[in-house]
Amino acid sequence: MNIKLRFMLAGVAFMAALGFTYASLPIAAAGDKVGAAVKKIGVLIKKGDNAGASKDASAAAKNIEELADLMHMFRPRSKGGLGVGEKPLPNKAKDGIEVMLRDLARDVPSNIGKQAEALEITGYWIAAMADLTHAKAPKKNLGKKTIKAWNDYTTDMRVAGLAFAKAAAGKGGQEIKTAAAKVNASCNNCHSIFKE
């Protein structure tokens, strides 16, 4: 093998390794800002300051260029999402809002009370993401993608998030399962029309 070909192959291998390393890094810049906004709004919602939450959501939404940046918050923490509660779960693959909701809608483990605080906080984050999504409503109707439908779905998501937080605080397995299923249904109903 000639020396030129060796250098070319080494260069390709280096670029592939660099690309793999870059792709495996968590989403940072936009995700960090969006995550901080979600958490701040979640605290306001928990305190019952709905006017403050709405005001902060409107302000923060102006800095969210792509709605996908907000939807990424449902991913596992290791992939740039918020995770479940403030502290990382031991199982990184399960430390994401979407996977947690899907799992709990199917079955709630008997020791769920140990995660009650993390789940309650996550419920407020879901409500906060609904407020942010509401603030990103389309400016005009486009077929089935109407402003009214958008607002209805974000309202459903907020209500479902609050119900999930309340169920988690009460540590009731069946209540948590029902609330998780409602959040899932709210997301799926919206995505059936507005998914990009």
> Secondary-structure element order, as H and E?
HHHHHHHH
Head-to-tail CA distance between termini: 48 Å
How large is the count of helical segments?
8
Mean pLDDT: 85
Low-confidence stretches: 7-29
Gross geometry: globular
How many DSSP-defined strands? 0
Strand content: under 5%
Largest sheet: none
Helix content percent band: 55-70%
What count of domains describes the coordinates? 1
Structural class: mainly alpha
Q: Provide the gyration radius in Å.
A: 20 Å
Please characterize this protein's 3D structure.
The chain is mainly alpha-helical and 196 residues long. The chain has one domain. The chain is 68% helix and 0% strand. The protein has eight helices and no strands. The protein is globular and about 45 Å long. 32% of the residues are buried.
Short synopsis of the structure:
The chain is an all-alpha fold. The protein contains eight helices and no strands. Helices cover 68% and strands 0% of the residues.
Features:
mainly alpha; 196 residues; 8 helices; globular
How are the elements arranged and paired?
Elements: H1 3-24, H2 29-47, H3 50-61, H4 67-71, H5 97-106, H6 116-135, H7 147-170, H8 173-194
